[in-house]
Design brief:
The protein is α/β, with parallel strands linked by helices. It has twelve helices and 14 strands. Helix 10 runs antiparallel to helix 11. The chain binds 3-isopropylmalic acid and magnesium ion.
Length: 357
């Protein structure tokens, strides 16, 4: 019997509700296939600020480092909006990303056929969409120094720094090419090489990596054009590799192809075994605690965990198929519009997935 240690970080807002449903799904998989999942839960984000004085403690970080995988809900909310920027809830995310060395953020964008009508794009535009967006997660503007604000003679000035080393680009782009090998063998590298020095380096390094993968096709796309192509003809994409901020923006845009940002899971991976899984949506404080949140992105994140961290492909697919089945049967959470569909709450949606398993 395989044993796995999972650190749960429910976080804020809807985080605890959706993580609860994902945990139930993992437990169901455990009892069906005979694996033992051991869970430990830790506070992060606003919840940790309130209880422990900072968004993530060293003990929590160490526990996550020691776990076989981390499952995160979401962090942040209006309650902490005016807090000292140094301890904002989001800092928990950056601490985890940097602390665990999670440089590659995988955001798969796949349209469940039952949800095609919920997309804001026409069904023929989103037919066949299957994108793996690989976002660089520990560099770029999110971490660059200096980061400051200073007085000038006439007002103020703020500075963020966009910097990338060749090593940071290389390991991320290589991950994208490796993934493409198991898919449609096409990599689109997204940059702003007509303007930015970091993008020019990004392009050079990407060309070098491409030479190691002669079986994979490479195309370069400027980020503004990519934003347009994503809504014009999204089926042209297979693997997309891009820097941190571009990936942040493009992944929200790509998420909408699927009908709801509430459907998208993600995996953040590093060089070793450390890995964190989380839905790409936020903490939705406006609906927190009301049993309205869509737990599917978190449940699908648990499926990614089974596949990537634990190599349990059959179990991962079983969760994905269960989700597909529940959607096909017409059940929806409030965020997923659908004619003749039955709206259910967070708990009920989780329960339906368990039954379909
Ligand atoms: C994401 C989120 C975070 C990010 C926020 C909450 C800081 O938008 O994971 O995409 O920008 O990375
Ligand atoms: Mg984002």
């Amino acid at each position: 019997m395989a044993e796995f240690e999972i650190a749960l970080l429910p976080g804020d807002g809807i985080g605890p509700e959706i993580v609860r449903q994902a945990k139930l799904a993992l437990e169901a998989v455990g009892s069906k296939w005979g694996h033992s999942f051991r869970f430990s839960t830790y506070l992060v984000g606003g919840a940790a600020i309130d209880e422990l004085g900072k968004p993530i403690t060293d003990e929590t970080l160490a526990a996550c480092q020691g776990a076989d995988a981390v499952l995160l809900g979401a962090v942040g909310g209006p309650k902490w909006d005016r807090i000292d920027p140094a301890i904002r809830p989001e800092k928990a995310l950056f601490g985890l990303r940097k602390g665990l060395g999670l440089f590659a953020n995988l955001r798969p964008v796949k349209v469940f056929s039952a949800l095609a009508p919920a997309s804001s794009l026409k069904p023929d535009v989103i037919a066949g969409v299957d994108i793996m967006l690989v976002r660089e997660l520990t560099g770029g503007l999110y971490f660059g120094e200096p980061r400051l604000r200073r007085k000038t003679q006439t007002g103020q000035e703020a500075v963020d720094t966009l910097s990338y080393t060749s090593e940071e680009i290389l390991r991320l782009v290589r991950r994208g090419f490796e993934l493409a090998r198991g898919r449609k063998k096409k990599v689109t590298s997204v940059d702003k090489a007509n303007v930015l020095a970091t993008s020019q380096l990004w392009r050079e390094i990407t060309e070098k990596v491409a030479a190691e993968f002669p079986d994979v096709a490479l195309e370069h796309l400027l980020v503004d054009n990519c934003a347009m192509q994503l809504v014009r003809r999204p089926s042209q994409f297979d693997v997309v590799v891009t820097e941190n901020l571009f990936g942040d923006i493009l992944s929200d845009e790509a998420a909408m192809l699927t009908g709801s940002i509430g459907m998208l899971p993600s995996a953040s991976l590093g060089a070793g075994k450390a890995a964190m899984y989380e839905p790409i949506h936020g903490s939705a404080p406006d609906i927190a605690g009301q049993d309205k949140a869509n737990p599917l992105a978190t449940i699908l994140s648990a499926a990614m965990m089974l596949r990537i961290s634990f190599a349990l492909e059959e179990e991962a697919s079983a969760i994905e198929q269960a989700v597909e089945k529940v959607l096909a049967a017409g059940y929806r959470t409030a965020d997923l519009y659908g004619e003749n569909c039955q709206i259910v709450g967070t708990t009920k949606m989780g329960q339906l997935v368990l039954e379909a398993l």
